[in-house]
Each structure stands twice: as structure tokens, then as C-alpha cells.
Design brief:
mainly beta, 6-stranded antiparallel β-barrel, 3 helices
């Protein structure tokens, strides 16, 4: 019976359905078509050959993604990453995952420490697949800076996943403004926010989870969670990588 429950749960994830966690969304809305040549670090994290999350190449053997993307995966080899392709389901090359390292302080309730490392079975050496520079340790991206977010998530709240890579630019907002927006949820130091407060219309939210957030060519975040999608009063919330930089190095050597 337990095996059946796990298998059905995995099928649910593989079909693009997220776990039932309040405020957890992951899709790009209000973006435009992109090409992998411009974002060669982007990967599709796939569960049993179906897209479930995004991720970012950080070395020849390591990929970063969100912790909530992998918490229900019992065997690393159930996961693979498609790299070097503009398209979610075709092209590029697929690499099997042999190790998953999630942050020990990850919380499925608050999505604090929402980060995981995936190790590829062999070195990633595919055309249009390159690692993205990691940030120096710090407090996070500056308010007002422009974050570039990419992924294959839903184009609208009720729509299908995108088959073509999407990109959107979002302004980083201050921690104070973010905490004021999310009065009933904890915005910790391991999180930062970006979006158009009071305007909405553009966001990363389902299917984009775990995907890269880049500022000035440096990977500063991962798509994590939000209340709805592209809502004017609720910006997107992202894993704050400068704060977690030491953990990445300790566990991957990168």
C-alpha cells in the first residue's frame, strides 16, 4: 500500500501538479519567448521524464533547485535534468541524477531554506549548457536591481505549461516592503522578493519552481513561492542564495 501511495504521489508531481501548500506557485506570467543560448544555465528538472521544476547549472556535475521540488522524491535516479534545449520536452541532452542534497533546515510549512543540490551521473558537456556564476556570501540582491527569471512554467494561472523557455524581468523590492505585503507569512533572511508592487501582471510562479533568478549575470535566487500569481499586492518570493552561499560550497565544492 505504501508503495502505491508513493507512486501515485510521484505521478501527481510528474504531471506538473504541485503539492498542496498554501501560497506555493511557480510559473512565468507576462514574459516572452527566450532561447537557451541566452540562458545556457537553465535546466528542466524532470521526474520520471516529465518536467516538474526548473534548476540552474552551477558546475559540470551540480545543479541547484528548490527544496520543495525534491522533498517527495525517494530515489535520486527518479530525477533527471534536460539541458541545452529551449524546449521543455525535446532537444538538448538528459542526465540522470545520482544524489540529492536538501538543506537540513528546510521547512515544508514555511519554505524556509528552500534549496537543494542535484548531482549528475556524468559531467554535463552539451552545447548550450554552461554553469552560471554564483554570488559572493552576503545579504542578498539590492532593492531596485533587475532580476531575470526564466522557466517553462504556466503562462497564466489556469493555463498549461509553456513548451518554449520564457523570460521575465522583475525589480527586486526591499525586505521591509516584502514583509509588509506578506503579513501572515514569514519572510526570512533566506528569502527575498521581486515584482511590480501595486501593478502586478508579471511574475514567476507553477512549473518554474527551483528555476534561476539572475542579477547582473550572477545567480542570486531560485523561484520559491508566492500568493497567487502576478498579483499587484503580492510579489514573488525567492530563495536568497548569497545567504546560503557557504552551504552550497560545503556540499558541492563549488
Amino acid at each position: 500500500m505504501m508503495k502505491s501511495i508513493i507512486f501515485l504521489g510521484l505521478l501527481s508531481i510528474a504531471s506538473g501538479q504541485q503539492r498542496s501548500v498554501p501560497g506555493l506557485d511557480g510559473r512565468i506570467v507576462g514574459g516572452s519567448n527566450a532561447t537557451i543560448a541566452d540562458f545556457p544555465y537553465q535546466v528542466s528538472v524532470q521526474l520520471m521524464s516529465s518536467h516538474t521544476c526548473g534548476g540552474a547549472i552551477i558546475s559540470s556535475t551540480w545543479v541547484l533547485t528548490a527544496g520543495h521540488c525534491v522533498e517527495d522524491v525517494p530515489i535520486p535516479s527518479f530525477l533527471s535534468v534536460r539541458v541545452g534545449s529551449t524546449y521543455r520536452g525535446t532537444g538538448g541532452q538528459v542526465y540522470t541524477i545520482v544524489k540529492i542534497i536538501s538543506h537540513p533546515n528546510y521547512s515544508s510549512k514555511t519554505l524556509d531554506y528552500d534549496i537543494a543540490l542535484l548531482q549528475s551521473s556524468v559531467a554535463i558537456s552539451t552545447s548550450n549548457a554552461q554553469p552560471v556564476p554564483l554570488p559572493s556570501p552576503g545579504t542578498g540582491p539590492a532593492a531596485g536591481s533587475t532580476a531575470i527569471v526564466t522557466g517553462w512554467g504556466k503562462l497564466s494561472e489556469e493555463g498549461p505549461l509553456s513548451s518554449i523557455l520564457q523570460v521575465v524581468q522583475l525589480p527586486v523590492i526591499s525586505q521591509q516592503s516584502c514583509r509588509s505585503a506578506y503579513t501572515t507569512s514569514a519572510i526570512t533572511d533566506r528569502m527575498f522578493c521581486a515584482g511590480y508592487l501595486g501593478v502586478g501582471g508579471k511574475d514567476a510562479c507553477q512549473g518554474d519552481s527551483g528555476g534561476p533568478v539572475v542579477v547582473n549575470g550572477v545567480l542570486v535566487g531560485l523561484v520559491s513561492w508566492g500568493d497567487g500569481c502576478a498579483q499587484p499586492d503580492f510579489p514573488g518570493v525567492f530563495t536568497n542564495l548569497p545567504v546560503l552561499r557557504a552551504w552550497i560550497t560545503i556540499n558541492s565544492g563549488v
